[in-house]
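As the next step, I wrote out a protein sequence along with its fold in token form, included below for the reader:
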Amino acid sequence: MSKNISSQTDGPVQIVNATGPAAAVLVCEHASHDIPAVYNGLGLAEADRRSHAAWDPGAMAVAEGISARLNAPLVASRVSRLVYDCNRPPEAPDAMPAKSERIEVPGNRDLSVAERHARVAAIYTPFADTLTKTIAAKPAPVIVTIHSFTPIYKGQPRAVEIGILHDSDSRLADTMLQTASDYCDNLVERNAPYGPEDGVTHTLRAHALPHGHLNVMIEIRNDLIATPQQQTDMAALLSDWLTGAIAIAEDKS
């Protein structure tokens, strides 16, 4: 992250470049693998606490790079998605998953209603409120969420390298897909390796669709952003691509 870009932390939420003037509002819901001490590591082995099940490796570094290049604010969760997945609504079973892929999460097993409500209040509500306020400060915000995914899932390799995801509003996603070859030679696919049917577009549904804001969710295969140089290069690529696509999509809107 650029030394000239400010970062603020408020409990479970980190805000980078809060006053950045760009229309884009960047979001990284799975930025951290941190499990606050009160949750006793959720009963997980150290390797599981740092695995992709707990966070999106590389995603935060890429998001920070885009924030610096576009001069855009970034709202990120500072808590592992195994404690609470900020890209899920409170009623979703996988907001506090008892199992993630092949990893059992003992600390999430048989949570009471009160325990679930406590996590919502401690983690999700501050994150969602901060994002709402950040978006409201923009006259014409564009919501861009940044994620990463594993090259192999449940033993199956994934060929897709960059996924451009959307829910019912595909304006920005369409433009990015149409212009992909102008910016990269990666294998880019629509709604891959996940799509709205998998429940992954909650942030877009909650913060963009009701207000008609341009929006997109970007998934990056994490072997492409495993090193600082790869993260810097991907941030540069996505910054240029987003800048061009947002301009086109705004002209059409």
In short: Residues 41 and 77 are 17 Å apart (CA to CA).
